[in-house]
Amino acid sequence: MSALLEIRQLHAKVEDTEILNGIDLTIGKGEVHVIMGPNGAGKSTLGSCIIGDPRYIKTGGQILFKGEDITDEATDKISRMGLFLSFQNPIEVPGITLANFIRTALELKTGERIRMWDFRKELEKTMKLLNMDTAYADRDLNVGFSGGEKKKAEILQLLMLKPDLAILDETDSGLDVDAVHIVSKGVEEYKKQVGGALIIITHSTRILEALKVDKTHVLVDGKIVDDGDASLVDEINDKGFERFMCCEDCKNEDCEVKKKLKA
Ligand SMILES: Nc1ncnc2c1ncn2[C@@H]1O[C@H](COP(=O)(O)OP(=O)(O)O)[C@@H](O)[C@H]1O
Ligand SMILES: [Mg+2]
Q1: What are 133-152's pLDDT values in tens digits?
Q2: For ligand 1, mutation pick of 19, 49, 236 (most atoms within 8 Å of CB)
Q3: Of 5, 154, 161, 176, which has fewest CB within 10 angstroms of its CB?
Q4: Strands 17-27 and 5-14
């Protein structure tokens, strides 16, 4: 059985700056992986590269999803194949309502028309689960939504689209305690209902509490410098990223971190 997602030696740049320096990552069906790393390490860039954001130029390596090479594939195709990215900063889309956006995406994914009544019933049920006012379904996507409402709208899309792999990019950052709880409940529900795989980019443990984490990866300077189990998340929260970082003018030839960054 091939892996669900396999990234081999991925290099990527944006505007002539190399940001990813050889990422290797393998995710099996239904697995939960956590990616942690300091600000600017390249975590969001990795998510954008996987989903095919054209702003990021892949300069080397390969991305396989369900055994198919998606390295140079367009975002809409990748998304229809069952890959989902929840944005760190969801954008506002005037002119299309939240409900229409989700319905169109669902119809494109399944290739079938969905009966309005069935769709609304499922949408409203899911919105209630996320403590969302159902009136938001008919508001333009994210326009005037608060930070927490935007993140809930992302989780609503996750639950409605039922992807095989979801990348959640700091979906829990900047939210109040209640909103984090609801977002976590939504992710748990996705796991229960769909059993899909997750890549969770986070700085906290709250969103992970109800999940079984299979692997944790530490991303520094565009490279994965360490892998571990769920306990690595606690270690980082306790002690920070210091042991994974190497100073720019490091003169120590035996520096383990430098060796890993250069490998
Ligand atoms: N679209 C972009 N244009 C210019 N620079 C970018 C862009 N996206 C990311 N970068 C740069 O790439 C580096 C990694 O960013 P990012 O992937 O957002 O890091 P992280 O998510 O780990 O905090 C940063 O130095 C950031 O400024
Ligand atoms: Mg980021």
Answers
A1: 999 999 999 999 999 999 99
A2: 19
A3: 176
A4: antiparallel
